Amino acid sequence: MSQKQVNFLDEVRRRRNFAIISHPDAGKTTLTEKLLLYGGAIRLAGSVKSRRAQKHAVSDWMEIEKQRGISVTSSVLQFGYDGYCVNILDTPGHQDFSEDTYRTLMAADSAVMVIDCAKGVEAQTKKLFQVCKMRGIPIFTFVNKLDRAGKDPFELMEEIENVLGIRSYPMNWPIGTDGNFKGIYNRDKSQVELFHGGNHGQNVVKSTVGDASDEKFKGLLGTEMYEQLQEEIELLDTAGDEFDLEKIAKGELTPMFFGSAMTNFGVQPFLESFLKLTKPPTPRVSNAGEVDPESKNFTGFVFKIQANMNPAHRDRLAFIRICSGEFVKSMEVNHVRHNKKVKLSQPQQFLAQERAVVERAYPGDIIGIHDPGIFKIGDTLCEDDSKIQYEGIPVFSPEHFAKIYAKDSMKRKHFIKGITQLAEEGAIQVYKELNIGTEEIIVGVVGALQFEVLEYRLKNEYNVNILMQQLPFKHVRWIEMDGFDSDRFKGTTDTLIVNDEDDKPVILFQNEWSIQRVLDRNEGAVLKEISARSF
Ligand code: GDP
């Protein structure tokens, strides 16, 4: 094997790529920050608030983020730790932008689910968990905020099983709860690790580590806490699940960790164990079978498009997940959908919040490529002429609908351009009413806040003011039926049949109850919640 080949394989094998998911406020941002701190990507963690300010400086392009103090878009962060090269796919915290999170999960090899120990499994966690489950990727659980009062750890394990339907395997166990969090017991090594220092989470914490049977811990913890720990360990060992790496890899068992992202207690043991338990990028399914990440042919797919990140440049970035081979700056690749060669110039990578031009990148990495308007979400790129295509990214059902049109009809061209670009980004879904001109467009979004973003961006990026009329629909179903004829199809008075962007018939409903009625009235009709079309 040549030295070049050895280097390439080393680069692939040290890659770890994951997304962090959580309900807002569980501590995703704080944990991300602390992982970066341990990775040496930022020397001083700084308060979450200052990191927020930093985050906004980066995503300055959208005032809404600043005004509302929420992160609308996800970014990618890379850092090194102990020889590993870690890619964290950051996802928007607000539930109204969960569609973006869904797509980001398509580019992730595993997920870390952050749970607030006092709140347990919350609504948004549940939704995002389902997407991870659908993909069959490993899911790790980080129970956060152990420095505060919370639910009993056994109760949390039960809750995860009851609400999410997945069994958990605690990799470590908290010592001292309810505001008295002292450390963890590492089950793999049978060691106790007590944390101290860290200057309220500003710095890396120090720890005292030793065998759990060491009597010194009785002194350090006090007899009561020490004995309680012994009992709990015994209970875990006798009544808990077996450790099973295969189940973990398939997302059927979640390794569970306890800690406090705020004080840094438990962050390092989590990171180290996580890196050992996860694998480098694994083969990915394409229409020509699985593609080995270690194969020489560079391949990747677009999972996210973002326009106008920098208003001064009016740029548009396509985020590409590299699946195999080596990426070299300015390489020429096949754009499979267009059947055309494209040059990947100005590639960018996101190193702890700073964009940098990247010379080389490897499977598991995410790069942002300047997009002159040729990419769509789901597009595959490959270096050789194999023309393979990766599985599509599903289109999720919108839950809010509105009719929109340009206030000034002279701005129509800009209006259409803006709508088309935002639809290509996946920020909105567009529907057309049957037998009506294109003056009005119906848009669907997954989260209501996306309407605000739409209005804002059309005004600021395309100079178009719009009028918007919210529609009472809540559900959309794609109609699949032999010989479908919109005139003969029997809806109900509160439904509307429209066409999607590919002129496929869809029906909008105000309530679930009508869905069944329409099914009853139209023999042979199938109503699909997720479009057969994917990006
Ligand atoms: P996100 O919405 O999931 O990204 O959550 P953030 O990281 O922004 O955290 C939400 C709030 O919880 C902030 O006020 C944090 O300071 C606080 N927080 C995060 N982690 C911890 C923790 O481990 N302990 C405590 N007590 N608070 C935390």
From TrEMBL:
**Family matches, as PROSITE patterns:** G_TR_1, G_TR_2
Instruction: List the GO terms this entry assigns under cellular component, sorted alphabetically.
Output: cytosol
List GO BP terms, alphabetically: regulation of translational termination
Question: Residues that bind GTP, according to the entry?
Answer: 22-29, 90-94, 144-147
Q: Which GO terms describe its molecular function?
A: GTP binding; GTPase activity; translation release factor activity, codon nonspecific; translation release factor activity, codon specific
Location of the protein in the cell: Cytoplasm
Tr-type G domain residues: 13-282
Q: Which Gene3D superfamilies is this protein grouped with?
A: P-loop containing nucleotide triphosphate hydrolases, Peptide chain release factor 3, domain III, Translation factors
Name the UniProt key words of this record, in alphabetical order.
Cytoplasm, GTP-binding, Nucleotide-binding, Protein biosynthesis
Q: What is its main location?
A: cytoplasm
> Which Pfam families does this chain map to?
EF-G_D2 (PF22042), GTP_EFTU (PF00009), RF3_C (PF16658)
Tell me the InterPro entries matching this sequence: EF-G-like_DII, EFG_III/V, G_TR_CS, P-loop_NTPase, PrfC, RF3_C, RF3_dom_3_sf, RF3_GTP-bd
Q: Which family, according to the similarity comment?
A: Belongs to the TRAFAC class translation factor GTPase superfamily. Classic translation factor GTPase family. PrfC subfamily.
Protein purpose: Increases the formation of ribosomal termination complexes and stimulates activities of RF-1 and RF-2. It binds guanine nucleotides and has strong preference for UGA stop codons. It may interact directly with the ribosome. The stimulation of RF-1 and RF-2 is significantly reduced by GTP and GDP, but not by GMP.
**HAMAP family hit by this protein:** Rel_fac_3 (MF_00072)
Name of protein: Peptide chain release factor 3
The taxonomy runs: Bacteria, Bacillati, Bacillota, Clostridia, Peptostreptococcales
